[in-house]
Amino acid sequence: MAVNTRTVSAKELKRQAEFGEKVSALLSQRYTDKPLACVVTYGCQQNVADSEHIKGMLDKMGYAFTDKREEAKLVIFNTCAVREHAEDRVFGNVGALKKYKLANPDVIIALCGCMMQQKHIAKRIYDSFPFVDLVFGTHVVHELPELLYKAMTRRKRVFELPDVDGVIAEGIPVKRDNDSKAWLPIMYGCNNFCSYCVVPYVRGRERSRQVDDIVAEFKELVSEGYKEITLLGQNVNSYGKNLEPRVTFAQLLRMLNDVDGDFRIRFMTSHPKDCTKELLETMAECDKVATHLHLPFQSGNDRVLKAMNRGYTREKYLSLINYAKELMGDELSITSDIIVGFPGETYEEFLDTLSLVKEIKATGLFTFIYSPRVGTPAAEMDDPVPHDEKAKWLAQILEAQEQISAENMKLHAGKTFKCYVVGKGKLGDNYLAARTDGNLIIEFEGDDRLIGTFQTLKVIEPLTFVMRGELVNN
Ligand code: 5AD
Ligand code: SF4
C-alpha cells in the first residue's frame, strides 16, 4: 500500500462520535424540532455512496432530511469534477443560495467531493463565495462531525482539504436512499492516470477494503432485504492488489455469490486493461452475479487509446468482449463509456470509435465530449477541433446506438429473463415493472405482492424503451 494511505483508527472514529454528540447537543439547544439537512449529490455512484454516509452521520447527529434547499438548516453539495459541465452546475447552484444564506445566517452551507479537492476550485470558493461556511475534501468525509462542530461554533470558515494518498474509514453510519438497491464500495481511488481524467488527483491512490469488512456489510445488506447490491470501485478489476494475502476481484465475487439469500450482485467499473478471463468466467458461473459488464472502451482507435494512456488496444478490447459473449451468449449485456473529441483526435480516428460501437452492439452507452481538466496531461495537448464539430461526431454515435438499441430490443422477443420486480409499471393499471440483469425494464401484468421478488419473465413485445412481457410459471 502506498505510504500515505491508511485505515482510520478506532480511536479517531470514537473521537468523531464524541463530536457528533456535541453537535446533537448544540442542535437541541438551538432548535425545538429536528433541523432539516439537504444533501445534493452530483456525479458518480461513489459520490452517491459517500452522500449516504454523510446522511448516516447527520441522522445520528439529529438532523432530518429535505430535498428543498431553501427550508434546510444545513445544505451540503457533494460535487463532481469529472467534466466542466458538472462543475458549472455546482457554481450556479451554490451562487443561487447566497440570498437564502444572507437572510438566514444560522444556515450552514457546505461543499465537499471531488471538485473541492482541486486547489484552484477551493481558492475560487474561498475568494468568491464567502457565504460558504464549510469545505471538506474526499479524504475527510468521516470527520464531518468535528468539521460541522467547528463550523457551528467558530466565527471562521472551515476549509479542510488534506492532500493525502487516501484513507479507508470503516463503520461510518449509513442512511441508504433506496430499500432494495444498495451501493457497496469495495475500493477507493485510482492509479491509472488516464491522461484526460482528474479522478486519480482528487480521489487518491487505489486502496481496497478488507474482504471481511466487505463480506460483513454485504451479509448485513442481504439480511436487511436488499436485492440488488452494486459493488463500486473506479477499477474493480484491480481490487485486492494491495491486500495481504492477495485476493482477486473474481475471488471476492465468488465469496459474495456464496452468501445465502435471494439477491443479485452488480459491479462497476471494470477497466479493460485489468479485466481477466477469470472475471468473465466467474460472471458466467456465479448465478447471483448479473451478466452485465460495464467495460468502458473510451475510443476505438489505437493511437487515441495510447494518448489516453488506457493500456489496451482495440483488438484486446474486442477479444475480451468476444470471450464474454462466448461464455454468456444472449444473457450478456454490455455497456460502455465513450469520449468523443479527445485532443488531436481526427475524424478518421473518431470513425474507428463509431465502428467499434457498431461492432459491439452494447445495451447502452454513456457518451461524453472531451472536457479539459486542470492538471491532467491531456489538458496540455493541442485540441484544434471545435466543440460544434465534436458535437456532430457525438450525434453520429448516438444515432448509431439508437438503432442498435432498437435492434437489440427486437432480438429479445420470445426470450426469458430473470428479473427483479421493482414496482408499479406504466403500461396499464395492473402492470408491474421488473429489471433484467442488463438493466432493461420488462413490464407485465401481475399481483402487487410480486414487488420485491425475482421472477422469470418472457418478452412478448419489445416497445421503444421497455418490453412487454408475461410471467413464466417456474
Ligand atoms: N472529459 C470527458 N469525459 C470524461 N470522463 C472522464 N474524464 C473525462 C473528461 N475529461 C468520462 C469517461 C469515464 C466517465 C466516468 O467519464 O468516459 O469513463
Ligand atoms: Fe479516470 Fe481512468 Fe481512473 Fe477511470 S480508470 S477513474 S477514467 S483515470
Overall description:
- The chain is an alpha/beta fold.
- The protein is about 35% helix and about 20% strand.
- It contains 14 helices and 21 strands.
- The strands form six sheets. Strands 3-2-4-5-6-7 form a six-stranded parallel β-sheet, with helices on both faces.
- A hairpin with a 4-residue loop joins strand 20 and strand 21.
- Helix 13 packs parallel to helix 14.
- The protein is globular, with a radius of gyration of 23 Å.
- It starts with a strand and ends with a strand.
- About 40% of the residues are buried.
- The chain binds 5'-deoxyadenosine and iron/sulfur cluster.
- 5'-deoxyadenosine (5AD) binds next to strand 15.
- Iron/sulfur cluster binds next to helix 7.
Quick gist of this model?
By secondary structure, this protein is α/β, with parallel strands linked by helices. It is 36% helix and 21% strand.
Question: Keywords, please?
Answer:
alpha/beta; 14 helices; 36% helix; binds iron/sulfur cluster; five-stranded mixed β-barrel; binds 5'-deoxyadenosine; six-stranded parallel β-sheet; 474 residues
